[in-house]
Structures are given as C-alpha cells and as structure tokens.
Amino acid sequence: MDKKIKVGIFFGGQSREREISFLGGRTAYEHIDRRYFEPVVIFVDSIGNFIKIDPQLLYEEDIRSFYPSKNQNNGYKVYIESLGPLRDTQLYKLIYKIGSQIKVEELKNHIDFAFVVMHGPYSEDGNIQGMMEWLNIPYMGPGILGSGVGIDKPVQNRLMELATGQTKKYKTISKDTWESSDKSKLFTSLIAELGFPLVVKAPHQGSSIGVAIVKKRSLEEFSKSMSQCFFETQILKKDWIKLSTRQKKNLMEKTSNLDEGIGFPVVLDSEVIYHPSDLLKRLDIYLNFHDNAIISSTNAEDYVLIEEFISGQEFSVGVIQDDSGKAFALPPAEVYGDVQTFDFKSKYKSNVSKKRIPVETKYENLEKIHENILKAFEITNMSVISRIDGFLTADDVVILHDPNTIPGMSPASFIFKQMAEIGFGITDSITYLIRQSIRERIRSGKNVFNLRNLLKNIDAKIDTAKLKPRKKLAVLFGENEDEYKIAKAKFGQFGGNEEFEPVAVCSALNGGKYRIPLNLMFKPDIMEFGMSIGKAKHPFIQKNIESTAAIRQFYVGDVDFSVSKISEEAFVKDFVAVFDCKTQELIQS
Question: Fewest Cβ atoms closer than 10 Å to its Cβ: which of 54, 78, 251, 576?
Fold first, then answer.
C-alpha cells in the first residue's frame, strides 16, 4: 500500500491543440498529490512517438522550444513534422536529446494509469482511449463512445436536440460541394435558411480553433471564413510581390502557428511541403507563373459546420459524478466582456473576455441551465468529467453546444474555477479525475479484478492521509496584484505537497491577517478578489455545495467557505511554515 501509483501524464499529441495540452501537462505535474501518486511525464510528439521526458521541459516556453530542437531551424521554430520524413537514426537522435522513447507495448511497464491531457483528434476522439483499453491501462475521462461523440460537432448538435428539445439551426457543407457550387447563391441560401450572422466551424477541432463569425454580408468574408475552417489559405501574386523578405518570413511563421495558421505540412498544387523555408522558396517560383496560390493543410477538414448565430450570455458548465455514476453539474460560469465569441484568442491570448460564477441571471434560469446540461451529459454518454458550453438568450432559452470530454486544464481553466466553488482545489480535482476514471473503467467489464484492486489502493491512501494530516503552511500575501498572483500559483502548487497543507492568508491593509477560502484564490485579479470578499454566497452556489457534500467529504473532508480573521497568537500556533509572497521565501519555524 505504501507504493505510489505511477500516473503517466500524457501531453502534446498530434492535434492543433497541442500547446493547450502542454499547459495542462504542466498543471497536472505541478499539482498532482505526491502522497498518492508518482508522476511520469510522457510527451507525445506530433508524429505519434511516446517519449518519457525530464519534467523541467514543461517549463519551456512551448513545445517548439525543446523539440525538435531548442535552436531555431533555418531561422524558424517548427514542430517535428516540418523536418519531413526522417530516417530512424535521425528520429532517435532527436528523441534522445530530450528523453527516452517508450514503445506502445511497453507503456504498461512504466505506468499504472494514463492521465491524458491531450485534446482534439487522436486524443479526444476515442483513438488513445481505444489504445489504452487494448493495453489494459486505465485512463482519464470518458470512454470510447463518449469520446467519439465529443469530437463530432454535427453529431453533438443532433444529440442536444434530442436531449433538450433545442432548435438550433445548422448545416454542413462538404469540400466538394463548396468547390463546385455557385458560392454567391450558396451564401444567399444559407442566410435565408440560417439567418445572419453565420458561424462557421471546423467540425473536429476544439479550443475554438477553426471558428469564424461572418458579420458582414460579404461573399469575400464568407469565403475567407470557409477557407479558414477548411484549413486552407490563398496568397495573391499582387500581394506577395509587395512583401519584403522579412514580411514573407513572418507570413510563413504565421502559417506555421497552429492557433492562427493552418500548420505544416501543407499542399501546394499537389506537392507536399514540410518546412516554412521551403514553402517560401516554392511560392517565389510558383507566383511568377500564377496569379494566386492555394495552400491547404494535409490535415484539412472534409466538411465544415455552419450554424445560426446565437445572441445571448455565453456560459460553460462542468459535470462530475459520484461513485454510483450520478451526475452533478457545477456552478455555471459566464463569459462576458467586450467579446462577440469566445474564440481561441479571447480564451488564451487576451484580457478582453472575463469569467464570473454563476451566470448573472435569475435563479430559475440557473436551474434551467443545470437541467439541460445534465440531460446532455447523459445522452452523449459522457462520464467522469465534461464541460458543456451554451448560451442563455434574452428570452430565457438555453442553447447548448460543444461538449468537451477533456477540458482545458491550465490553473485558470473553467473546470478548476468551478470545482473550487464547491471546495475542490486543483490537487483534489486531479485525485477525483484519477479515481473516478478508474471507477468508470470498472463499469466496462474489462480487467475488473485489477481495476478494483487499484481503486482499493487509492481509497486506502486517501483514508490514511485523513488520519495523518499534513503540517499547515501559510501562503501569505498582501493586498496587491503581484503578491496575489504569486499566492495563487504557490497555493495551488503546494496542494500536492507531501509535507505541507497550504492555507491562503491575506495580510490586509488594515493590519489584520485573514484566512481565505479556496474559491477566492481563483479570481482573475486582486480587484475581483477584493470585491468578492464581502459578498454573501450566491444561493445557487450554496445549493451546489450542499448537493456535492458527499463527494467533497470523501476527497477533501470539511471545508470552510468563509473569510475569517486570524490573531497573531493563532497564526504562530497554527502554522509551522510560511511562504511569504512578498519575499518569495519559505520560512519554517
């Protein structure tokens, strides 16, 4: 029982969301509970190799910073696929610079559980889940069927209709239809059928990659949106010849970026081109003889989804389960601010969009959101965890879309903010995800004896930890943005510490020290933190807290959701160590 469970943290992968996965891998490594689990960091590169790496590589700027090389390749930062077909000796040389390759059939020798934080195709669509099933390795999240549904947006739309009765209008257009159609007539007919504006989506992508809103009744804008979601781009000769060498290189770099470009390899006139520098040279020649160049990704979509534009409050709701499989929706989080769609840029690269919990609406609407979310969770065959997005319209209609089987897992992600509202820190949430996933794998009827023993092992570790409480460590911060930011990070990272249990303590401007509840450590900045301190608990969140009491009691125990003042005497008595966010020093008594 003393032996820790080896948890493989799988990040990276072959999809366009691999950098989001990179952030999730770092979060899982930093916050996993070291009392129970031994993390094994496994990088999955974009051609499918499994590589056990030094965890310090998780602190690089991005994947391209360490693989295929720290150095820029021909002046570009590229992914491994841009090096083209490699001989085995070339590939092994690159792999062994960062770690050691693990063959698929050998994974079971290295890990007891697969904590998969990869997103998109190959990762959220049942591919890696099926491989783990074959290897008898339990894995995080829903099973194969729920994963398959979770990656297919048109199927999701049909199931949402069945579950909730919603009537969102949508249509799919294949690449063949698009290329052979009268585009002006098609645009006009779509507006007549779906209304205006139009939302164009790549049907198998996540993190809002491949999403465009057509806001002008312009065929040019519509065509650009279709190309974006088919992952192709057009370069005109008249524009190319005006560019300097530096500007051409910048355009190639933008094309290489997976969030704003189409990524490599690309196809130009039936020729596969792997590297940005090669594409630049090829375009210089090609555009001498042609008026334009159509460049498409080798991983392009075969069709796109076109939906009516829904105007309303945008929200996201996580769903968890208890041991019996009963689902519980978490407090709905609202996206608000000066943003018309919660796309990749607003999610990850700007401060325009903000999040608040719960959605700012009447209580009855929050109940309606939860009711619809739970119906959707059931009909899509989700389990363990899901994040389902939606809109609340001005006339109080709930429209759902895009169930996520592996939600984003950076410390600021929706799922952790919502879990915090019911008393789960990031570390507790990760423990829940591992344990509940094993519970769900048992339901499959495969490898049941070993899975039950693994579940008993985890439960025994949790019970032992309750009998041996850790020493209290105060994460002490002042009422300023810099210290609050440091406190949030350290509070989370100490969550998985074997020796210390972190307690957030604010050294207020009035001279007092205050114990801060978990949920207040997930506010975006010190201003919202300060505004939240004096607020009473929202009755809908209080209901969520009460409904999930049994789950919380098992994983976390008793949780104090209030702000309370600590005397100097109690502070000295209760805490054996202090992490001072002002000096960034750990002080032990």
Answer: 54
